[in-house]
Every structure is written in C-alpha cells, then in structure tokens.
Amino acid sequence: MYASEKLSKNGDYLLAFRDPSGAPLEPRFLIDNKDKAAITESDVKKLIRDAKERHVPIGVIAARDETQLRQVDRDCRWSQEDGIWILRTTRGWFRRDLDVLHRFLERMRTEGADFLQKNAAMSEEVRRTLVDLDEVDKELKKAAKAIDAAAGMTGKYRLRLTSLCDNTEAQKKPPQRQQDVSSIKQAGD
C-alpha cells in the first residue's frame, strides 16, 4: 500500500494500492482519522468536500474504535454520497475492509469510479457484507470472553481440588492378605 505523508489539510492521508513497480494505483483514498467521542454528519460532509477537492473517488473515516461510529454509520459503512464513495470504519477493521473491497477497487480502477454506481446490487451486497462482518467480529469477541471465563473457572477449580487433595489426610487401609483375596475369588466361582 502507498501512504502519503500527513496532509496539511483536507484529510489526514492519501492511500492507494501499488503496482508491481511500487507506483500508487487508482483509485486513491482520502483517509480522515477521527479521535473524538463520535463521528458527526459534518465530518462526513467535510470528507466528501475534501475528496472532491483532491479528485479522489473514495473517502474513509477511520474512527479509533467502533463506539465512535453512530448507528447510521454502522448500518451503512459503505455508501456513495455526492459522487464520493464513503467507507466508515475503525482502525481495527480497516485492513479487513480493504481485503473485502480489494476486487471492487480493482474493477473501479479498470472500469472507472462509477463501476459500483452501474452495479447497484453489487454495491448493496458490499454494504451488507461489511455489516455482517462486523456482527461476526462481535460474536468472536463474545466467544473469546467466554473462553477466557471458562479457562479462568477451570484454573480456579483445579486449584480448589488440588488444595482439597493436599489437605485431606490419606486414609490408610490395612493391606489385604493374599489368603483373603483367594477365598473371595473362590466364593465367587
């Protein structure tokens, strides 16, 4: 990936995939990192304006974490507004989102920025896929918590049982005589 130096205005960075020689490819992205309590509609409008000024077809709002995204942002993480494609993401989701979008971005490069505009059903599927992946991510976090809780409980009970075993006096049984064992076997036959 190509990443520009921090921009003095109009977003934070320009980002693009690279060709085999290392040159940045179209389409480029204007990345606007946000580190505030919540993303606002004015942040989205500013990103659209800045992307238009730089002639960049894709704008990305990258929040620090998902709590900064409004419900509307989470429900529609990939959309087009005023001719600019907007990806609402987090720093943790960004790499995964680029992996999902990579083939579409290649097609945008070869067929033009309006590739997804011409294919509304495909654009809607991308939007739903990103939302579904976010749900998978939430379930994985829940599963990780459950695994951690189970591991903690297992360790706790292991220590408890070990302590019980260590603190219980061993009851000594008198050794059985060989003759008693033989008479028991004969009685069973």
Quick structural summary:
By secondary structure, the chain is an alpha/beta fold. It has six helices and six strands.
How does this structure look, described?
There is one protein chain. This protein has 189 residues and is an alpha/beta fold. It has one domain. 52% of the residues lie in helices and 15% in strands. It contains 6 helices and 6 strands. Strands 1-2-3-4-6-5 form a 6-stranded mixed beta sheet. The longest helix has 48 residues. The protein is elongated. The N and C termini lie far apart (82 Å). The model has no long low-confidence stretch (mean pLDDT 80).
Quickly list its features.
single chain, 189 residues, alpha/beta, 6 helices, elongated
Major sheet description: 6 strands, mixed
- Structural class of the secondary elements? alpha/beta
Put simply, the count of helices is 6
- Largest beta sheet: strand ordering: 1-2-3-4-6-5
Low-confidence stretches: none
The N- and C-terminal alpha carbons lie at a distance of 82 Å
Report helical residue fraction. Answer: 40-55%
* Mean pLDDT value: 80
**Cα radius of gyration in angstroms:** 30 Å
Number of domains: 1
| Helix-strand topology string | EEEHEHEEHHHH
β-strand percent reads 15-25%
Number of strands: 6
Shape assignment? elongated
